[in-house]
Sequence to fold (399 residues):
Amino acid sequence: MQLKAYKFRIYPSKEQEVLFAKTFGCVRFVWNKLVENFNDKENDISINEKTLKDNPEFSFLKEVSAATLQQKRVDFYEFKKQYFNKKRKVKLGRPKFKKKTNRQAFRLSNQKFVLDQKNSLVRLEKIGFVKIVLDRTIPEEANFRNITISKTKTGKYFASILVEQELKPIPSSGKVVGIDLGIKDLMTLSNGQVVDNKKWFRENQSKLKQAQKHLSRKKKGSSRYNRQRIKVAKIHEDITNSRTYFLHNISTELVRTFDLIVLEDLNVSGMMKNRKLAKSIGDVSWSTFVRMLSYKCDWYGKMLIKINRFFPSSKTCSNCGHKEDQMPLNIREWTCPSCGSKHDRDLNASINILKEGWRNLTDQELSSAEYVDYGRGVELSLNGVSHHLASALKRLENQ
Fold:
């Protein structure tokens, strides 16, 4: 059984929007009180949503579902557990207060909501039936775990329903691939296929700059400021949605096509400290793409392997194994001084990544026929659009 979330757009009435706003506010209030108590070193008294509700000053907390407040308290306790966990590789920072201008959300357990797929309605405790647009059908045998109601900065409402269900593995294809992630191109596959980097943020940067300039001239808190703030948020939302949709399609197609996918374990957070590359790295969203690949491989019975980030994939000749001492980023093509093979930097790296992943998995070497001859002439089709073959593959064929 695997966990899977189904996210749908919901359309509450005006009265329900008021109830949503109250619930968002109360959940945010409880979190902020827990953070305040956590940061107060002189106060040894622990608080929870029950002690807050018993306070006559905070009687408004009784107007919303108690389950939403309980879930927020559970979230905070889980944060504390991870905060003091000495085994964590990356230490968490101190908790932050939540603002009403950011994304708002609350969660209900499976006993507190009912989904009517036939009539496209979802019933929420203390809110009632809300219209929901179902673009997919949740299987009847799925076990509902919880539902998260969220509101974006642009004023849109969504319901994310987490279920536990049995997902059927995708039939085995017997194909393997190594992937070199990049900035100029999103990725280069070991079979020579290249997926373009669409550069969603950079394509909309001028539009965003203009909208932000107009926002800076508005008086904060005014109606005009709020309207312009929503316009800026919509541009950010369109960029994120376009990028996410694109990455979802690529990751799904890769999982369907290959049984084994090998990547480098990139230190994205460390690379983001490079100011010259930070914007481009953020735009390409490597972490999001790898996360999608990871859980989709788990869902459908495929294998994802990450090799050591310090493995010299670009500097090593994929033909004879010779390693260059230095390989600056401006060198995109090079000739091996040992065997004379001509290499495209990214294609050579993807082949080496596949070979290293295969070696780590089987303790055996991968022959050149298994990774070079595979898939020649076959395009990687995404939404009916075939992405171009790398020019490096053509050079290899002409050798």
Summary: Residues 2-165 form one domain. Confidence is low (pLDDT under 50) at residues 371-399.
